[in-house]
Structure formats: structure tokens, C-alpha cells
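Researcher: Here's my situation. A collaborator sent me these components and asked whether they could plausibly form a single complex. I don't have experimental data yet, so a predicted model of the whole assembly would be a useful starting point for our discussion.
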Amino acid sequence: MKKFFSIRKVLTFCLFISIVFASYSAYYKIKHWGFDIKPDAASDVWVIDAHISFTPTGESIKVSLSTPNMGQEFKILNEDIVAKGYSITRNDKDKRIEMSSNAKKGRQNIYYRVTIYDNEDTRGKIWDDRKPKVTKPIFDNQQQEMVDEIIKASKNFEGNQVKKLITIFNNEPLDPTVSALLPVHITEKQRAEKIIDILAYMGISARLARGVRLEEGKKAAKADLMLEAHDGHKWRIYDLHTAQDGLPKNFVVFQRGGVSLLDVAGGVNSKIRFSVLKSVTPSIKMAGHRAKLSDFSDTFNFSIYNLPLLEQNTLKWLMIFPLGILITVLMRNVVGLKTMGTFTPMLIAMSLVKTGFIAGLICFGIIISIGLLIRTMLSRLNLLLVPRISAVVIFVILIMQYMTILGYQLDWEIASSAVFFPIIITAWIIERASIIWEEDGPLNATKEIVYSMITAIATYFVISNEYVRHITFAFNEINLVILFVVMLLGTYTGYRLTELKRFTPLARG
Amino acid sequence: MLDLFKNFTSPTILKSKGVLGMNARNYDIIGHNNKRRLYPLVDDKVQTKILATKACINTPDLIGIIEYQYQVKNFIKYIKNYPRFVIKPAHGSGGKGVLVIKQWSEEQFINASGRVLSFNDVYQHISNVLSGLYSLGGQYDVAVIEDMVNFSDVFNNFSYQGVPDVRIIVYKGYPAMSMMRLATAQSGGRANLHQGAVGVGIDIKTGKTLKAVMHNLPITHHPDTKADLMSLSVPFWREHLIIGAKAFEMTGLGYLGADIVLDKQKGPMMLELNARPGLAIQIANGRGLLNAVKNIEENYPKNLTAEERVDFILNK
């Protein structure tokens, strides 16, 4: 007995290892490849086009564009510059792209396209312990008074100083002092700069952040603005309208602080226009792009997710098999249902997935019934085994054919799902049912068919579940766990559920 | 839902009664006592017969073996000196495909239940046997023709139509449990318990009835013949046990079932052996097999001859 015990121990150990391995790889895939437990999880992918245009002055041209900060709030999948006749250099330190060329004629167009996806796990604040110097603005007396009054009035609002100040600048109706301070025609930027001035006056360092607010199909002539204020440890970002702090989900920062978004030397009337396009991509498809950007590309290249889509779909279908097999094992060795053929119920369940549940069951029922009728007639002919089962196979094919034709003519979609059932398996079910019918009576034949169908239906409900299919594919190491569970069940010597009923007379005595 | 569970018993109770479950039988008992390569010795009735003859175990006389389809039309050639005969598939199981002819002429064959068959019917039956219709796995098979057992009348009253046989479970050469299977009208003359045959648990020491069940329920009289099942006593019990015990040396199988019938003149005869005997015998005996197996494993002496083992059991 000691010997069996050690087999069980080894298998249990393997099971434990496989669980650890599967958990780790699930963690790895979620963390580094962006897989999701949910099957329909999607990542937003944004395409931002920046269109730069200017009129050359006749001197040599130098264009410098600030680009989104990589490795922070968003991750860049792809970057592309279309600038004909320009030599392009990348300044990684300042996150700027510089394009230069000799003098050119005519209006110049430069396109910068960046494809990014939201990288939420790194979304956060920008830590900067060096407290920036605050240069207090110089106000004349009148302005001084107004500013003091605004600060005083802002105390009535909620939040920290920065929030209070932004709120009072947006409050409706506008505070008379505020409107007096601001010129009549004021741009968004000028307004923001006024707030920065007042903050500086209060000793708070603040700066502008320019970027693009991601909205579907957006076409904007200007960059969007936000305000960043230093709180002593880090830069906090604020919305200039709502005073909400924290970076909104849909904002990509191109440039922050005093440096410009776009510098054009040798050109006038420079303009930058942004347009935004959003596309939703399933997380699992994004995984490849993400993995390639990360340090984990090698592991990804050797995973099934790097295969052509056709192979991936085939594998996705295969990956569900181990679970179906596990159910078969459970049904036979733990529950103790006697089914026709070991894996027949699983194969029926697979067909049901393709045909749809109700349609498949009706269709299967019809095929089996007609098949049994024909088989009864065949048994009178006393044919030899192989020719007889072959005849049944051909009959099954003919039944499927006529059901499909009939289904089409009568516009009855259910019938056309007939072709999805495995022909040979169906023929064997008919053959076996017929033999049991003859030898052990109709009751036993029906019993065995019913048990097979119970197993098939149970299997169907597990494998048709979208979650289950996603998990067995995306986290396919779980199949290793299933393998060891199945092997451990191979050493299960306990009673089967049906035996608890079968042996009741023995429990009484 | 609760009603449903009333019909179930708890695994702890079964365990305390020493009931052997299917999984434990396959894993602990068969998996560790019966080597795979030994299976053909009992799955093939021709091989079993040859081995039995060598081991001096009585079996019905072998009349002939039909291997090929072309031989089928000449089957009369084999049986012409035998007034009664049995045709069975060499790889059959559970009595499938067994045709018993108790009387025949060139044109007419009368089977066990008295039905008259034509030459063509018998011809067709042998063909079916060869095509593997009744065989394990459905592979091609051969038909074994053997002499019909001249059944003793001792059990005449106890069985409806079919022939009563004794099944002995032998563990490591020691008979561990036994039962008799009696056909009923409901079982259609067959000896399968799940079809409604009566199972009579036979005391391994005395050869007398312990308990009788039909469809899992205890009974005292045969439903058709009304014979008192409690009075059943198997004659030549020691000889029965010796056949079972010898089967261990003969096949090397640590766990086997021996099916034995009683012939009027020749005494107990081995019909067939089974490497995976079923568990219904526990219900017929009203006790679990596991206790008996454990007892043999722990307390019974090893390295005895078949006769010594049987005597050890009888004198215990």
C-alpha cells in the first residue's frame, strides 16, 4: 500500500506546482501583457494626429515639437512623422522631435501621428521633490487690491488653495472682481496664466500643461490646457474648468511647464491642429503590441498569442478539450454514470456548441430516432458487423442531407445544423443503443442514452461559457492543472455517487 | 431533493461495512494483482481451456474451433458425433452470443429454451460470432464449439430455464466470496443480476445459502419456481473451491472470478474465468468484499498449494 501512497503524493506535489505555475503565469500575463480575466475586456487605442503648418520665411527651417511623455500615463504603441525633405532628430531628454531643412517655399505641412493606449497602472502623479522657485508677479496697486479680494472671496469655496482659485474663476455668475481683473476678450491660455500669476503671488508654484483631450472623432485647432501646481512634493494636475484634480482618463500631456509645444524657426503663421481617433481593441489583441514594447517580448513570441489568427482560433477550440475531458472523468469515475463510449458525450457537447443548444438537441433527437428505426429494420437482414455499421453510417449521412435540404426549403434553420454532428459517433450511438435495446430491453437502452445526454449537456454548459473559454485560452496553463487533477482522479478509490445508491442494501445489514 | 438523497447511503457507512467500490476494485485490487499481459489467458476461452486441461481442471470437452467464414457452412462436420453442443465466441463476455443446442438433426436445431432453429439460423449465428458481434471490443473472433454440460438435477427447481452457475471470487488463490446466479422469467433465462436474476450468496465454508436477493431486495423463495432458496446447498463444495483456487496458479491472476457448473457425471466444471469480476456479489452476500480481501492479505498463510488453501478455509 505504501507504493500507491507515494504515487498519490507525487501527483499531489505536481498538482501543487502546476497551480503555482498557472497562478504565476496568470499574474505575469495580466501584469505584463495586459490580459484580462473578463472575456470582453477591451483597451482603448487612440490615434492622435498633429498637423503642423507654417509659411517659411526663406531662411533655413527648424521645427521643434514637444511629444507625449512615454512611460507615464499612456503608452505609445507607434509614432510616425511625415515630413518630406526634413531631417528628423529625436531629442529623448526633452521628449522633443526636431526637424530641420534648408529654406523651402510654399506652405509647409508636417504630420505627426502617435498611437497610444491607456496604461492605467502607471497613471499617477509626477514626483518632483525639488521645490521650484516661485517668482512673484508684480502687480500695480489696483491689480493688487483685486487679487487680494479674489483670494479672500475664494476662501468660501471648497478644496485646497488651487481648487478654490480655479473654482472662483469658473463660478457662474462670475465674481465681479474676477471679471474686472480679466480683460474682455481673453483666451483660455491667458485666463490660465492669470490663475498661475495669482497662485505665484500666494507662493504656490504652478505651470501650464498642454496636451490633447481624447474624445472620439475630435478635431481641434488648439491644444487643450490643464494646470499643474506643485504641492511641495509633486506636481498635481487640475482641470481648469471643473477644478478637479488628478489627470483625467482621457488626457494626453504633450508638454508641460514653460517650454513651448511647438517652435518654428524660419517660419511664420505656424499652427498645430490635433485630431483624435479612437478604436476599441480586445485586450488580448493588444497584448502583442504591449509585450513587444516591454522587456518581455521573448516569452510572448513563443506563446500561442503570437501565432496567426487561424491557428489561434484552432488552439482556442482545442484548449477547451481538457475541461471537457475532466467532466467526462468526473461523470464516470466520481458520479458513476454509464455513458455510451468514453468521450462520446463530450463530442456531442462540442457539436452542440456549434449548432446551438435547443436546435442541436432537437436535431440530434431526430437523427437518433430515425437512425434507430432504420437500424431495427437492418437487424432483420442479419448483416455482418462491419457492413452493418457502415450501412448505418451511410444512413446517418443521408438523414443529415435530407434534414438540411428540408430545413432550407421550409425555412427551418434548426434542421440545417444537422451536419455538425460527428457522423461516425452518431452511427455508433445508434448501433450501440440498438444492441442494448435488443439484449437488455428498451429501458436500459433509454437509460444509457439519457445518461450520455446528461453528461453531454453538463459538458455543454461548461464549455459554451464565454468566461470558461476565455480563461482556458488566455490562461492556458490551467490545462496543466487539469492534467494533474485528472491524473489524481486516476488514483481515486472512493465510492462513486451511484454506488452509494447501488450498495444501500449493504448499509442496512 | 431530500427524498432523492434518502435512497443514498453515506460513504462512511459503506466503508465501515468493507464494501468494495468500482474505483477501489480497479485501482487497488485489479491494478495491483492482475498483470495486463495475463488478461488474454482468460479473455480467450480457447486459451483458458488449454490451460485448464494442463492444470487438471474439468471443463466441457472442446469439439472444435471455427476460425474462418468458409468453415462455417461445414460446421456439421465438427458436431456429427455429439448429440448436444454449445457455440460461443472465444472473446465473449456475460454470456453474450452463447447458443445452446440440446438436440439436433440435419434440418432442425432445438435450443435450450425449446425453440426450433433452422440450419440457416445456426449458420448466421456462427457468422455473427466470427464478425465480432458478441465480443469485447467488437474485433474479429473465433467460434468455440464445445460439448454441452450434462447438468445435474440438484438445482432443477432453483432456476427458471437457464443453468445455475456458481461464481467464486478468488483473491491470491483463496476463495473469498461466492454466489449462485439463478435465472428467472424476468431475466429471460439469463443469469445477470441487473436483469432480474436471483443472486444467492453462498457461504464459502459450507456451500450453503447465506442470503438471496433479487433486484437488490432480499427474498426467500424463487419468484417462478417457488423453491426455498434458504435450503440451497451446493454439493461437492470442496471440489468447487479447488477449481477456483487452482485457477490462481493456472493464470497468475491475483483477483479473479471463476464460473463453475455442476455436471451429472463429471462433477464441478469450470465454464469460464473473469479477470474483472463484478461487485454485485457483495449485495447477494449482504457483506463487503474488502474485509475478506484484507483478511486474506493479512492473516492467511502464503506458499500453500491449491488443496492446502481450500482445506485451510474449510477448517478455519
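Model: Some features of this prediction you could bring to your collaborator: Chain A is about 50% helix and 20% strand. Residues 134-204 of chain A form one domain.
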